[in-house]
């Protein structure tokens, strides 16, 4: 028999009292913040949340404050009915899906100033993005007082912004970062992959191929970061991905660009394929 959908809570007061009641009855609480249009990457977080805690809350909220004026807020996929079916199968306990007005009433005027790491890469190209992310994530942490919050490595800079915010503002929650889930050909799952037409989908695999090429070069002894950046750029352009926002080889905690790989580093790419902007990253481990 199919599992019943988890209750969907829209009211901030209700979600907090339900989570408090779960805690008082002895549960440990995990929260998985998402913008919906759920795929296997999101579900891997929910599965891990079920493994580490007894009560799992998934939040679904397409957060307007993290989209720039020219970005895809209006057309961002919204698939609540199928999201709930998927969450039922994972035995998610509660869904918090607030409206824009309850999260940002007309009187709203307080924002989180995000940590320094937010100014690089995505932050440089999407001004205000991480201010919106940090603000909504802190609000969700207040509304859903959980023991653990789970995030995907796929949005690597976001995980740093959240880790640094939680550390700097003494937010009492553990942050767990889980591996990127990929398609069989390597493309990182993303709700935005739904925008790709068949030709764009074929080219999009170049992001992961460029990262894996860099990983292979590092395994083969390459330590010069410029050589690795060039290799990634060539892999992208050879596949027809020419609208590159950045290709970085960076420090895994600060995201400062590195000249050499004498310690683990993170390779990050952002590029547009057609009109769809994709990001991906991979940790590089020189041995
Ligand atoms: P989003 O709905 O895009 O805001 O993503 C919600 C959460 O799912 C974030 O923590 C993402 O990093 C994570 N996520 C998105 N795509 C993937 C993926 N392919 N593998 C693992 N986690 C992912």
Would you kindly provide a written description of the structure presented here, covering whatever features stand out?
- The chain is of the alpha/beta class.
- The protein contains nine helices and nine strands.
- Strands 1-4-3-2-5-6 form a six-stranded parallel β-sheet, with helices on both faces. A three-stranded antiparallel β-sheet has the order 7-8-9.
- α3 links the parallel β3 and β4 (94-96).
- The longest helix is centred in the last third of the chain and has 22 residues, at 198-219.
- The protein is globular and about 55 Å long.
- The mean pLDDT is 97.
- The chain binds adenosine monophosphate (AMP).
- Adenosine monophosphate binds next to α2 and β5.
Q: Report the mean per-residue pLDDT as an integer.
A: 97
Range of helix content: 25-40%
> What is the radius of gyration computed over CA atoms, rounded to a whole number of angstroms?
19 Å
Helical stretch tally: 9
Return the string of H and E elements: EHEHEHEHHHEHEHHEEE
Order of strands, main sheet, comes to: 1-4-3-2-5-6
* Class of secondary structure makeup: alpha/beta
The parts where pLDDT drops under 50 for at least 5 residues are none
Largest sheet: 6 strands, parallel
Cofactors and ligands:
adenosine monophosphate
């Amino acid at each position: 028999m199919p599992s019943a959908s988890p209750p969907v809570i829209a009211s901030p007061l209700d979600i907090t009292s339900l989570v408090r009641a779960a805690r008082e009855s002895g549960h440990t609480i995990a929260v998985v913040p998402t913008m919906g249009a759920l795929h296997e990457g999101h579900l891997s977080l929910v599965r891990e949340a079920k493994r580490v805690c007894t009560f799992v809350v998934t939040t679904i909220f397409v957060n307007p404050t993290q989209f720039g004026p020219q970005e895809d807020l209006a057309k961002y996929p919204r698939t609540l009915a199928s999201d709930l079916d998927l969450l039922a199968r994972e035995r998610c306990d509660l869904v918090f899906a607030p409206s824009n007005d309850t999260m940002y009433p007309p009187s709203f005027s307080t924002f989180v100033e995000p940590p320094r790491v937010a100014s690089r890469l995505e932050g440089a190209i999407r001004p205000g993005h991480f201010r919106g992310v940090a603000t909504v994530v802190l609000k969700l942490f207040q509304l859903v007082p959980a023991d653990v919050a789970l995030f995907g490595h796929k949005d690597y800079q976001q995980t740093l912004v959240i880790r640094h915010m939680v550390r700097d503002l003494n937010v009492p929650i553990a942050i767990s970062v889980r591996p990127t889930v990929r398609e069989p050909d390597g493309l990182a799952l993303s709700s935005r992959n739904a925008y790709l037409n068949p030709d764009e989908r074929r080219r999009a695999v170049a992001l992961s191929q460029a990262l894996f090429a860099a990983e292979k070069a590092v395994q083969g002894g390459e330590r010069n970061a410029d050589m690795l950046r060039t290799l990634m750029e060539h892999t992208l352009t050879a596949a027809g991905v020419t609208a590159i926002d950045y290709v970085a080889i960076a420090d895994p905690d600060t995201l400062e660009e590195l000249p050499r790989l004498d310690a683990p580093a993170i390779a990050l790419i952002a590029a547009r394929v057609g009109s769809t902007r994709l990001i991906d990253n991979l940790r590089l481990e020189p041995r």
